[in-house]
Amino acid sequence: MFGLAIHGGAGTLPRAEMSGEAEQKYRAGLQEAIDGGFAVLQAGGTSLDAVTQAVVRLEDNPLFNAGRGAVFTADGRNELDAAIMDGSNLQAGAVCGVTRIRNPILLARSIMEQSDNVMLAGAGAEEFAFSRGFSFVPQSYFYTPERWKQLERIRSGDTGLSALTISHVGTVGAVALDSHGRLAAATSTGGMTGKRYQRVGDSPIIGAGTYADDRSCAVSATGHGEVFIRAAVAHDICSRMRFGGRSLAEAVREVVLDELPALHGEGGVVAIDARGEIAMEFNSEGMFRASRTAGAEPQIAIYR
């Protein structure tokens, strides 16, 4: 058994405001990412390679808030975060606040596999990237007119703007189980529109937005990062399975539908366990998501 689940962020446009054309573009982007990652699994590849491939495709798609198409900070920059974790040995790599790396998930993986560190930040992370032969892109690479308009709305004091509900603002991520029984998780984001003070959310924090453990499950989260950090969402789900005897579905529901709302946290997760069971749960109006398991067709959805 093997399987893959991905997300492109929780907190979508209300269904009434999502045009048919926009929905088709998002579905096509999710389809490309799930196909890319699943092809790795079908060929007998590792869960790490599968989540990496899926997230790279989402980072390269300007519709999603990761890599190209990342949201802007308050001062008009793009600061990118990402993390990856190997459930077979609990190794992990993470990067935050980078500004010139096309695919932050690849840098996070390089940190995991080619250094003694887990997380590197900002200029230090980019210095490591340079030492490993990464090519840098100009800031203009990340620019999209839609993201700039969102920043301008923030700057204008638009009180009707929420970083979780505005069009296509959302972290991307993937979780996978390979044919060898190994789990992996990966998450990448541009953060929240108009963020200040080099703010870092849950995505690159191991145990908050990203976690994988072959003894329980792999989780990638998306939503209100500050709350996800406080609740240690990804690790909590794994712990409820490992120590509390919960099924994957039970653990995910308890955290996403009970714990997060109690802290006024909005968002969701995708998760997969060692048996190939998949859970994709959210407490926002929608979450861009897709999944596929061995012998089945891909499932793609935005709303419930």
Tell me the layout of helices and strands:
Blueprint: E1 3-10, H1 20-42, H2 47-59, E2 80-86, E3 91-98, H3 104-114, E4 119-121, H4 122-131, H5 145-155, E5 172-177, E6 183-189, E7 210-212, E8 217-223, H6 225-231, H7 233-242, H8 248-262, E9 267-273, E10 278-282, E11 286-293, E12 299-303
Helix pairs in contact: 1-2, 2-3, 7-8
What does this structure look like?
The protein has 304 residues and is α+β, with helices and mostly antiparallel strands. It is globular, with a radius of gyration of 17 Å. The chain has helices spanning 20-42, 47-59, 104-114, 122-131, 145-155, 225-231, 233-242, 248-262; strands spanning 3-10, 80-86, 91-98, 119-121, 172-177, 183-189, 210-212, 217-223, 267-273, 278-282, 286-293, 299-303. It has a single domain (3-303), classed as (Glycosyl)asparaginase (Glutamine Phosphoribosylpyrophosphate, subunit 1, domain 1), CATH 3.60.20.30. The chain contains eight helices and twelve strands. The strands form two sheets. Strands 4-3-2-6-5-1-11-12 form an eight-stranded mixed β-sheet. The protein has a four-stranded antiparallel β-sheet with strand order 7-8-9-10, with helices on one face. Helix content is 33%, strand content 24%. Helix 1 runs antiparallel to helix 2 and helix 7 (233-242) crosses helix 8 (248-262). A hairpin with a 5-residue loop joins strand 5 and strand 6 (183-189).
